[in-house]
UniProtKB/TrEMBL annotation:
Transmembrane segments: none annotated. Gene3D superfamilies: P-loop containing nucleotide triphosphate hydrolases. It is found in: Cytoplasm. Its main location: cytoplasm. Belongs to the sulfotransferase 1 family. It is an enzyme of class 2 (transferase). InterPro entries: P-loop_NTPase, Sulfotransferase_dom. Its EC number is 2.8.2.-. It comes from Microcaecilia unicolor. Residues 38-285 form the Sulfotransferase domain. GO terms for cellular component: cytoplasm. This is Sulfotransferase.
């Protein structure tokens, strides 16, 4: 009888103060020496900020709105996750190296851990940020259903871990601020999940412009439809249903997709504590977020 391969939860280790999955940590030298190509396009995010949504939008734009082409493979094979090495699967770097240009690549790395070659080659990068409260809620559910990340513990425990930045890929505030500052001297299009919810066509236009594509109103409408929450939830090429690391019986990968879900999780006391911490960690930045629509 064939053995069922179910991945086990991995540890995390701290690299320059940032918690990373053990496999990323152990493979760090290879990741740091990653060789970018000038026409690589990166989608960079803090985990759970809307990465997959942007990935599908970009794939649709690159392929002129052709839905059939976007069905060619699950999203994690179409757009490798460069720092990820999962059990029983080729690593993100191996997938990237086997790809023909132009490549679309995903990363959750904070700006200070981005492999230098990506800056040297002046690659274009799309960064998507999401308000911290919804990002925290989404991450909590994700760490429950993700078989290879550490278990999040209870909601109150996870809440404290997130505030302390003791979660994979480190503190949310440093991540969003670091990339916000980097956009001043790099080719970075910085977008917000909440704007994508409010007016997806408008944000898709911005991505198109950044990618120097002009597809017209009708194709934009098609892209909006194809990348809607419901469409992506039902699409096996975007919903990660066949991914061995995710247990959808605990929580679906494409879970709720709303702005303001934090209100169904935060207690009044947690909200006050969160706001107080937020004022300190976000002090002095011009970066602002919208917590409800
Ligand atoms: P929730 O857990 O709040 O539902 P990432 O791709 O970075 O891991 O982000 C996952 C989050 O984006 C999940 O948030 C998921 O539901 C949401 N998401 C994915 N596709 C979406 C879409 N088309 N529209 C809105 N939200 C989407």
């Amino acid at each position: 009888m064939e053995e069922t391969k179910i991945p086990q939860r991995l540890d995390v280790s701290s690299l320059r103060g940032i918690m990373l999955p053990q496999s990323t940590y152990e493979n760090w030298e290879t990741i740091w020496s990653f060789q970018a190509q000038p026409d690589d396009l990166f989608i960079a995010t803090y985990p759970k900020a809307g990465t997959t949504w942007m990935q599908e939008i970009v794939d649709m734009i690159i392929h002129g709105g052709d839905k059939e082409i976007c069905q060619r493979a699950p999203i994690h094979l179409r757009q490798p996750f460069i720092e990820m090495k999962r059990p029983f699967m080729p690593s993100g770097l191996e997938l990237a190296e086997a790809m023909l240009p132009p490549r679309i690549l995903k990363t959750h790395l904070p700006v200070q851990l981005v492999p230098p070659s990506i800056w040297e080659k002046d690659c274009k990068i799309i960064y998507v940020a999401r308000n911290a409260k919804d990002n925290l809620v989404s991450y909590y559910h994700f760490q429950q259903m993700n078989r290879i990340l550490p278990h999040p513990g209870t909601w109150p425990e996870y809440f404290e871990k997130f505030l302390a930045g003791e979660v994979p890929w480190g503190p949310w505030h440093d991540h969003v601020k670091g990339w916000w500052e980097a956009r001043e001297h790099q080719r970075i299009l910085y977008l917000f999940y909440e704007d994508m919810k409010k007016d997806p066509a408008h944000e898709i236009q911005k991505v198109m412009q950044f990618l120097e594509k002009d597809l017209g109103e009708k194709v934009i409408e098609e892209i909006v439809g194809h990348t809607s929450f419901q469409a992506m939830k039902e699409n096996p090429m975007t919903n990660y249903c066949s991914h061995p690391c995710f247990d959808h019986s605990i929580s679906p990968f494409i879970r709720k997709g709303t702005v303001g879900d934090w209100k169904t999780h935060f207690t009044v006391a947690q909200n006050e504590r969160f706001d107080e911490d937020y004022r300190k960690t976000m002090k002095g930045t011009s970066l602002t977020f919208c917590n409800e629509l």
